[in-house]
Amino acid sequence: SATMRRAVILGLGTNGGVDAAAVEKTITALGPDRMVVILTLHGRFSRIATDNAALRAIAARHPNVAIADWHAALVGTSGNLQSDGIHSSIRGAHLYSKVIRQAFADLSLRLTGKPVTLKPVPGP
Question: Which of 58, 52, 37, 47 is nearest to 110 (CA)?
């Protein structure tokens, strides 16, 4: 993990579910000096709410970990996903990146006490 960057994004579990022990092991391996953002899951699976609750609980135990709530960002929107209801469209990819950027900005504020001003990014 010495070659890994300071900011890490974890997007996992949509197809197979969340393995909480594996997520914890990954966060431990990354160490407390990295800023880690975990994306919530979205899809047509009955376990999504339970999996997202597990991810939120894991993030809450680690001061250097934040949640990027992809699932919540999609509520009430259309055109952000492909027909499978899981993978993002081009428009959705822009929303996805905005959710991640905001999570890192929120995490940075939490860790440093200094607000982050995000410049607008181009996109739909």
Answer: 37
Q: In which residue are the tokens 């699976």 written?
A: 45
3-state secondary structure the chain: CCCCCCEEEECCCCCCCCCHHHHHHHHHHHCCCCEEEEECCCCCCCCHHHHHHHHHHHHHCCCCEEEECHHHHHCCCCCCECCCCCCECHHHHHHHHHHHHHHHHHHHHHHHCCCCCCCCCCCC
Segment 48-97, tens digit of pLDDT:
999 999 999 999 999 999 999 999 999 999 999 999 999 999 999 999 99
Question: What long-range pairs does 19-24 form, CB within 8 A, spacing at least 24?
Answer: 20/54, 20/57, 20/58, 23/54, 23/55, 23/58, 24/58
Q: What is the pTM of this model?
A: 0.92
